[in-house]
Specification:
Layout lengths: L1 H5 L12 H24 L1 E4 L2 E4 L1 H29 L18
Antiparallel strand pairs: 1-2
Helix pairs in contact: 2-3
């Protein structure tokens, strides 16, 4: 029994059972995590020639709490936001670059 509980992600244990509410909750979590990921990318610490950001920590926390499927979907959403031109990456200007087509 404890092995079955340990193999599930933290979020999957707290999601509602209703399919519509479950999907809405997952969508809300994914969008919220991309906001946190974008903020962690903009937070940088300058230590010599290499800038450090909190993005690595944010990715690890997302993966640990969301599990594989929702975590990958969240990171793909984050990369899609960056591909559309939103200023979510560390090196992009605050006004964005527009739609990158």
């Amino acid at each position: 029994m404890s092995l079955a509980i340990a193999s599930k992600s933290l979020v999957s244990q707290t999601l509602p059972r209703n399919a519509t509410q479950r999907l809405a909750t997952q969508l809300f979590l994914a969008i919220g995590a991309t906001v946190i990921l974008a903020l962690s990318a903009k937070t940088r610490v300058v230590l010599g020639p290499v800038d450090l950001s909190l993005q690595t920590l944010a990715v690890l926390v997302i993966g640990a709490t969301f599990g594989m499927r929702l975590g990958v979907a969240t990171l793909l959403l984050y990369m899609a936001e960056g591909a559309m031109g939103l200023p979510v990456f560390q090196g992009t200007p605050e006004k964005g670059i527009g739609f990158a087509i």
